[in-house]
Amino acid sequence: MSAGPGTAAPPAAPAATSRFRPDVEGLRAVAVGLVLWYHAGLPWLDGGFAGVDVFFVISGFLITGQLVREVERTGRVSLPRFYARRAKRLFPAAATVLLSTCALVLAVFPTTTWKDFGGDIAASAAYLVNWRLAERSVDYLAEDTQQSPVQHFWSLAVEEQYYILWPLLILALAVVVRRTSLPVRPTLAVGLGALIVLPSLAWSVHLTEVEAPRAYFVTTTRLWELGIGALVAIGPHLWVRAPRAAAAALGWAGLATIALGAALQDTTVPWPGSAALVPTLGAAAVLVAGFAAGDAGPLRLLRLRPMTWVGALSYSLYLWHWPLVVAAGQVWPDAAWAPVAAVVVSVVPAWLTYRLVEGPVRHHPLFSVRARPALSLGLALTLVGVLAGFAVSRAAPQAQLADPSSAPGAAALAPDPGRASVSTEPGPMTPDPLEATKDLPSLYAENCQVSVADEGLKTCEFGDPDGDTVVALVGDSKISQWLPAVEEIAKERGYKVVTYVRSACAFSATLNAMEGGAAQRCQEWGTQVIDRLTGDERPDVVLTSSVRSEGVDSAGDRSVEALGEGYATYWERLEDAGVRVGVITDNPAPQEPVYTCVAEHPDDYMTACQVPFALGQGTPALLDGTERVSGVEVIDVLPWVCPADTCWPVIGQVLLYRQGSHLTATYARSLEDVIAPPLERLVEQDEP
Q1: What are the structural domains of the chain?
Q2: What gap in Å lies between CA 52 and CA 321, rounded to an integer?
Q3: Neighbour-count burial for 58-95, b at 16+ CB within 10 Å, e otherwise
Q4: Structure confidence at residue 145 (pLDDT)
Q5: Which of 49, 350, 390, 592 is least surrounded by Cβ atoms within 10 Å, i.e. has the fewest?
Q6: What is the pLDDT at residue 140?
């Protein structure tokens, strides 16, 4: 972490002549040790990610202590000096790692990741990457995105944003103190607690309950953790009065709390929320104890030379270990030893950075007297990092592209895909593999697909808004992928298309085989949808599809048949209401992102990037449902995705897959002539 491990003082400094706290340095070692252990994939500390929360408390403690002493000494806060100290201590090492990561990305990672990773690097240099990651964490379409080698910069971004807010708030409170003659520390404690700590904690608990992935990264859910450290820094006049034995017991209890939390908590616990109180209050207890416990407290352990040595390196260790862990996973994806080796190896560049970059820049006379040189250095390093990230994002070579308007796609297989010949020679294609994940159905731009984590349902209209014939698309993202074809058909024939789409939710009366509350939310969504489709919003035709393979029966057992029975329940209700039903089969799932493989194999992608032939994960349950209900039209797309049981990556100059097992909008659109006849048959059927 930045002000946590980043403000390391030389461990040899005597406590009597400086504010250096060896127990704080040792606590840094504990925090970074937890993070490194967790990222190495080692057993027993599945909650090691909480080391970041410990760092947040240390940061709040150290920074607030500096600011409060300045307020007491001068009655104000010098913002230029404050930001200059942060810039010269934190930015040089961070820039060194970011530039090195740029080279690592270009050398090790697939070209399809360069754009995303370059953007992550630029956002990290600007200390905004946590918000970028927050958006990605709740983006259903980002499931193929690899772990970013700079993902760990999210916590540094949180702290840098804290450094902008915190001194301004303390400065405002200092003005209040000056004008009212109120005591400095009590006023700051009440003000920071009321304005930041309590509101942020409440918001953290709430957002973690409703949107945990976003809550993990955003600044607003983390400020209270830094605020805990700040409150400790404000109250040393209280902590020093504690009896030595009581302070020692508190300190050891705090250290034990951190350790037990790391051992007993894991990634199944929604985070941060109230669960983060465990490491934060544990760290606060250790810091409080350090004022009065002396050798009877954790100081006895934390001041040991190995602990202070690691604590001094903690910032560089934190910066370096994660890019190496991710790179090792890319090179040796199945090797359990790879992340462990990466963590061990990271000690070398961390030590070199500490000795050759951190220390020399921090103590250079040029940056010690005036604030402007340090601020200029920080700005320059930020710009260098941002520009380097942009350069990486634009470095990937572009494939030979075909004209989307003339590429036939599935039409090249007509009239019989089983007998059609597919060219295996590499050639131009569309979309560009580097942009395949953006080749989406139009409903995503309209935010018409409800996330699996959200409540309720949402409908959107496409095709002819005045059409008398209404076609409803109902299901998960697998029905969404066919909107481009259905939309074209609808525009040509005057149909109105209405979507009822929820990520990962099959339109089945039985409980989807899913973990946690997602299954219940899917079932509630299905109940709402079937009531609408058989009520005032009754369409003429329902088209459905899904990737889900199993449902849960009344005995709690999972099976294809349970899901199929749930399909049949809803389809019978639709037919009883006069609504015709069509089912579009699922398509096979690749073992790796096809667009990545195609980009990495420009000369032999047709053979190197074939997808294993299969019915498609969701197809068996869909077909089981059709066997239970007569009159359901089955639209079998498998022959057009895998002609002659061969799943090519490119057909008719069109790249098939964009993300996961989803087809590109361009290829889906090219199946218009395949979907149109059965859809017309459904529309033209007389009502029962």
Answers
A1: 5-393 (no CATH), 438-584+612-634+656-684 (3.40.50.1110)
A2: 14
A3: bbbbbbbbbbbebbeeeeebeeeebbbbbbbbbbbbbb
A4: 62
A5: 592
A6: 47
Residues 483/445, Cβ–Cβ less than 8 Å: no
Contact 366, 373 (CB under 8 A): yes
* Of residues 579, 580, 605, the one with CA closest to residue 592: 605
Which one-letter DSSP state was computed for residue 644? Answer: G
Strand partners, 558: 552
- Which residue bears the tokens 């320059």? 380
Which residues sit opposite 542 in a β-bridge? 472, 581
Residue type, 296: A
Q: No. of H helices and E strands in the chain? A: 29, 14
Residue pair 543/501 in contact (Cβ under 8 Å)? The answer is no
CA terminus-to-terminus distance, the chain = 67
CA proximity to 149, closest of 96, 91, 111, 109: 109
DSSP string, 460-528: EEEE-TT-SEEEEEEESHHHHTTHHHHHHHHHHHTEEEEEEEETT--S-SSEES-STTHHHHHHHHHHH
Q: Residue 172 carries which side chain, given as an amino acid letter?
A: A
| C-alpha to C-alpha distance for 278 and 256, rounded to whole angstroms | 10
Q: What are phi and psi of 341, to 5 degrees?
A: -60, -40
CA-to-CA separations, 628 to 477, 506, 622, in angstroms, rounded:
24, 17, 10
Q: Are strands 551-552 and 495-502 parallel, antiparallel or unpaired?
A: unpaired
Shortest CA distance to 23 belongs to which of 286, 383, 312? Answer: 286
- What is the CA angle 664-146-547, rounded to 5? 45
DSSP class of 417: T
Q: Check residue 334 and give its pLDDT.
A: 87
Do 653 and 598 contact (CB within 8 A), yes or no?
no
From CA 462, how far away is CA 500, in angstroms rounded? 12
For residue 344, what are the contacts with CB-CB under 8 A and spacing of at least 6? none
* DSSP reduced 3-state for 8: coil
- For 372-393, the three-class secondary structure string (H helix, E strand, C coil) is HHHHHHHHHHHHHHHHHHHHHH
Q: How far apart are CA 226 and CA 306, in angstroms?
A: 26
Pairwise CA distance, residues 219 & 283, whole Å = 20
Strand, coil or helix: what is 533? helix
The residue whose two tokens read 């609808």 is 490
For 143, the 3-state DSSP assignment is: coil
Q: Spell out, as residue ranges, where the chain has pLDDT lower than 70.
A: 1-19, 138-145, 516, 686-688
Q: Within its chain, how far is the Cα of 569 from the centroid?
A: 37
Q: What is the largest CA-CA distance in the chain?
A: 93
Query: For residue 19, what pLDDT is reported?
Result: 67
Give the C-alpha separation, 211 to 133, whole Å: 14
pTM more than 0.90:
no
